[in-house]
Amino acid sequence: MRAPSSVITALCALHPSIDEPQRQALATKLEPLITRYERIDAVSLAEALARRVKHPGELEALRVDDVLWAEACLDGDPEALRELEVCLATASRGVARRASVSERDELQQRLRIRLLVAEDGAGPKLAQYAGRGALAGYVKVVAMNLLLRVQAPRPPSSDSGLTALPDALDWESGVLRVDQQVKFREAFRKAVSLLTVRQRALLRLNLLDGLTIDELAPLYGAHRSSVARWLAEAKGALESETRRQTAELLRLEPAEVERLLSRAQQGFELSLTRALRESLVSPG
Q1: Are 177 and 209 contacting, i.e. CB atoms less than 8 angstroms apart?
Q2: Residue of 154, 240, 162 whose CA lies nearest to 200
Q3: Which residues pair with residue 122 across a beta bridge?
Q4: What is the pLDDT of residue 107?
Q5: 193 to each of 27, 119, 189, 220, 230, how far by Cα in Å?
Q6: pLDDT at residue number 22
Q7: How far is 110 from 219, CA to CA, in rounded Å?
Q8: Distance in angstroms (rounded) separating the CA atoms of residues 108 and 125
Q9: Residue 188 has what pLDDT?
Q10: How many whole angstroms separate alpha carbon 172 and alpha carbon 167?
Q11: How far apart are CA 132 and CA 130, in angstroms?
Q12: Alpha carbon distance 126, 55 (integer Å)
């Protein structure tokens, strides 16, 4: 249980000029939150509030419940992340009403990453939430900005990093003839397109951004064993579908494809990791 008095004491240590009426008003806001997201202790919540106010007078306008929610999400609280998922789905539907289900799913994946993962030297967007307006509204604004980025003319999407992998993979280098390599690249692009949104996102986050299973699990509000299984399935799906598409395009029997590509069997993940780092040309 996180007592309001403990939060106020910790906050007053950071902002000594908080007066009694301000303390009482804050206590009223904190009372309903005593048992909500208990992973965030009194000191952590006080620090989160202090970061969002320059002087005590700003406490009145601060949405303490939403600040707590944002901090809990960043801390990986399962309940907070489940609630965030509902918010993400609502925001994605709201800003992309004419989009297909798969396009909304893609936007939701991007939105989750932008809110919870540091990118391009900037911290997670949730850490930048000022606490003045509703957090759900803030999420919708971030979703709209992402949608505008997606719709604006830009280099190939982040999945181009995946579809460009055959240029750097050891799989076909020295194994396939030049004419076969062209078909192999086409097969690989098809294989990438058949991955689910979650599979592509997991591959980017794990192999490009270097996020571990333990770091990925809070993003998806799932146990690490589930995320480990999803990631293994994504890698397996990409490899097996590439082989299937290669066999189809080159009109080869599976055994023949296996013979052509077997030299790089053990180096698949190493090649995939390196190629992702070398060929991803636009942000996710």
Answers
A1: no
A2: 162
A3: 119
A4: 84
A5: 52, 24, 6, 22, 17
A6: 93
A7: 12
A8: 14
A9: 72
A10: 9
A11: 6
A12: 22
